[in-house]
Each structure stands twice: as structure tokens, then as C-alpha cells.
Specification:
47% strand; Thrombin, subunit H; 6-stranded antiparallel barrel; single chain
Length: 78
């Protein structure tokens, strides 16, 4: 899987809600410059343009406006 870009919609306590065409949870999320933000914990919403919920694992993660979801390696296996 290639890198998937997404736009942050809002922040919710320790989570980011963003729009990105991701199909699985457990993937790592970064800023466009490559800094680690957290992991995808939930994918929901319409199939054409899904939302993702990202658990913020870095304090500065609340200041991002764009994210990049990288590959399936180390993602949750089903």
C-alpha cells in the first residue's frame, strides 16, 4: 500500500478525526514532513470518502492539519 494523504477535520481529546481513503485500522500516521503522530484506531463513514480516528501519541500532534498514513507493515492483522 502506498502513502495515503488525509486532511484533519477536527480534534477530540486525544484523537484526530480526518478524511483519508484508508481501509484498515492499526496503520501508522505521520505528518507530511515525516514526524510520527499516532495510529489509526477506527475507520468509519461513507465508503467513497471515509473518516479515520487517529490516537495521538505525540504531544505536538494536536497542531497538524494534514496527515500521511503509511503502508500496512506493522498494521493490525485480521
Amino acid at each position: 500500500m502506498k502513502d495515503v494523504k488525509g486532511n484533519v477535520v477536527c480534534f477530540e481529546k486525544d484523537y484526530i478525526i480526518a478524511r483519508a481513503k484508508v481501509t484498515r485500522s492499526g496503520q501508522k500516521v505521520y505528518t507530511p514532513s515525516g514526524k510520527y503522530v499516532g495510529r489509526v484506531v477506527r475507520v468509519f463513514g461513507p465508503v467513497e470518502a471515509p473518516y479515520i480516528k487517529v490516537k495521538i501519541e505525540r504531544k505536538w500532534g494536536r497542531r497538524v492539519s494534514e496527515i500521511v498514513v503509511r503502508g500496512d507493515r506493522n498494521g493490525r492483522k485480521r
